[in-house]
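Appendix C. Worked example: Nuclear transport factor 2 family protein
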Amino acid sequence: MSNYKNRWIVGVVALVLLGSCSAQPEVKPSKQKVSAILNGWHQAAAQANFDQYFSYFSGDSAIFMGTDATERWTITEFKEYAKPHFERGRAWNFTPVERHIYFSNDGATAWFDESLDTPNLGPARGTGTLVKQDTTWKIAHYNLSIPIPNAIADTVIKQVEEALKDTSSK
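Step 2, the predicted output written as structure tokens:
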């Protein structure tokens, strides 16, 4: 009986070892890969490459939020807004100055914030979320903002309130 028991134990151990050898190693998410995706996306806009730019999004229901309070678009809506800019041969040019990237525990979601240098907005900030689709990272949500220094926030708030009054009375 002990010979049978020994063979059974050896068989179980062999199966466990064989199974662990054939298991796929978990790939750690890479900040460099996510950063390369974001850099390529910004470059596609700078080159006014419409198809390439929009290929970086996770799908037509992804969200792009612009600097104006009215600018919350699904990618389908954002394409309509952006198309004339791209057709003119110049969209926008955002150059990352600093970027921070983080990952979910399961490695399937990344979020980031980036400081941007832009010719038309001046210093700007982008924040967003990327999701892993198969082996590629795709942008699911992006929020572009203009950081306002606290020293002038009161003045800007008053200007925003006045602008909102003007648009609501029309």
